[in-house]
Structures
1.
Amino acid sequence: SAVISQKPSRDICQRGTSLTIQCQVDSQVTMMFWYRQQPGQSLTLIATANQGSEATYESGFVIDKFPISRPNLTFSTLTVSNMSPEDSSIYLCSVGRRLGEKLFFGSGTQLSVL
Amino acid sequence: AQKITQTQPGMFVQEKEAVTLDCTYDTSDQSYGLFWYKQPSSGEMIFLIYQGSYDEQNATEGRYSLNFQKARKSANLVISASQLGDSAMYFCAMRDLIQGAQKLVFGQGTRLTINP
């Protein structure tokens, strides 16, 4: 299994500010994804982080609100921009080495927006 | 579109008993994968078990086994000899292959509580 480090583990932020979440993997992975889990809900995919190119966003999520970087095969960031209380959620990165293999998750970032 | 259904919002089980968490899925794909994850109160997602659609035998990982019934499109998780530490949310998920990228579609989850 991959060792995934996600930072910060939690944060409390003010409305209108931005937060960048980091996901670092101990080995190269083909696939990296960002998920959101709103309180009491299941996980929803935000986007697929593509190495060296723009991320692929799911319906309902846009780059201006959730810019994503992936400069190499072991690292990605997700920024939650211009935050509102509705952005309060757990954000998780997920990785997979190869197609058809298991997907593993980071420990998550618990975000609260006041 | 693929869909995962978990019909048990919550379950209460006595310690040391076996427990079955239900999961049904809907897909038109012939090749797919099914996953179970555990989410304790800390929020992390812990991989438990995986079943490929072409796997002939049910997957097992320690106390976890997956009761895979392909014709009925069900992939129930069985936990044997439950422990207090098994109390958590459990999510069933399906691998969705879109343009070569493997992403997961999740069910709504089941909250399992183990009573001493």
2.
Amino acid sequence: NAGVTQTPKFQVLKTGQSMTLQCAQDMNHNSMYWYRQDPGMGLRLIYYSASEGTTDKGEVPNGYNVSRLNKREFSLRLESAAPSQTSVYFCASRVLYNEQFFGPGTRLTVL
Amino acid sequence: RKEVEQDPGPFNVPEGATVAFNCTYSNSASQSFFWYRQDCRKEPKLLMSVYSSGNEDGRFTAQLNRASQYISLLIRDSKLSDSATYLCVVKLQGANNLFFGTGTRLTVIP
């Protein structure tokens, strides 16, 4: 099992450009999450999907959109990237009451 | 007010030392508690869950004090490989998501 995979690993964007971060899990988990991690701020939840077909906002959803494409895949889209979105993005998945598994992260820089 | 607060450290300790981290949570409806470990430039990984009666896993001991709303992690006989950031994590009753502290950085020195 690959667990949680994310693509790309690194990305540099210019202000105003758009991109989609991809995430997939092969553990048959119902819940999936997108976080961003910034120095001194810890992990902050952007969006989550409790099950296929549902998505909910987290703590910092502004500037992002998500799609739960199927049970395996949960993508995060930046429509018009801003320097404030420079961060490390982690995708995670979880079965209810069990641990959350994280992907390796995407390091995004917006110039 | 943050849901979870941790001392960011850094904690620099010699090999073999015992070190303890504390974490406080603000919501009394918090239901589940965890410690995650994050190595530099890597993803967080579950270290251990924290149970009401306290629990131990080898050199690691986790304690929960619901009355005072804090969680602790004790590491005995520190190894160089214990160097990492330790994240305190809380789940609220009925919630689907987890709340992460900012982490406490530990460096074990030879």
